[in-house]
Amino acid sequence: MRIRLYLAALSLVGGAGVATVSAPPAAAAACSDIDVVAARGTFEPGTLGLIVGDPVYSALQKKLTGKNLSSYKVNYPADLSLTSAAQGNADLVNHVNRQAAACPNQRFILVGYSQGANVVDNSIGISSAGAVVGSPIVATIPAALESRVAAVLLFGNPIRAIGKSVTGTYQSRTIDFCAKGDPVCEAGGNDTLAHLGYTANADAAATFAAGKV
Questions:
Q1: Distance between CA 190 and CA 63 in Å, rounded?
Q2: Cβ(155)–Cβ(201) under 8 Å?
């Protein structure tokens, strides 16, 4: 039922611009070796995200057995409101800044699915403005913390449908899955169900991340 509701919501998704927003301060969590920061897709249920965040975190726990992992669910609406992705962008960067200050040895794995990929894109300096449920950049991870981002895992990334991708500093640390026919990340794609199949890529994403940690 949750998947069906999510699928129905996807049919309503359209591009939108946003106004500048900021996230409220968040208290730092306990320190771990690696903090997995996950931004879920539009209306996606689950703790970190039923389709991507939860299965990816589970796969990372299995791959990174010698590391202590924590997780953070980006606090944002993940809906069709005009400021949704921007709120996620601000919250993600705020969380990384807080954690990095409190835990000098902690590293980060960023996970983004669908609208959540827009959130991550913006946070690493790649604007999602003009993409489905995208936004202009409102905050970026500071240059001083870039080396502490071990990996960036993206799924159904809307910027790909407008001919963009992650380039520059984070390119070699990024894996970006786009299923054939997925209309959210493939221009001209017409297989909406393809956008719901990224759980199948969780193990591959975790393997990639393990090679970067």
A1: 34
A2: yes
- Write down the catalytic residue from 35, 54, 176, 182: 182
Where in the chain does DSSP place strands (E)? 34-39, 69-73, 107-113, 149-155, 174-177
Kindly name the residue from 35, 71, 84, 195 that is annotated as catalytic. Answer: 195
Residue 39's nearest CA partner among 143, 128, 167, 147 is 128
Q: Is 195 a catalytic residue?
A: yes
Tens-place pLDDT, residues 126-145: 999 999 999 999 999 999 99
pTM above 0.85, yes or no: yes
Q: Which amino acid is at 203?
A: D
pLDDT of 75 over the 60 cut: yes
Catalytic residue among 114, 123, 128, 135: 114
Asked whether residue 1 carries a pLDDT value surpassing 80, the answer given is no
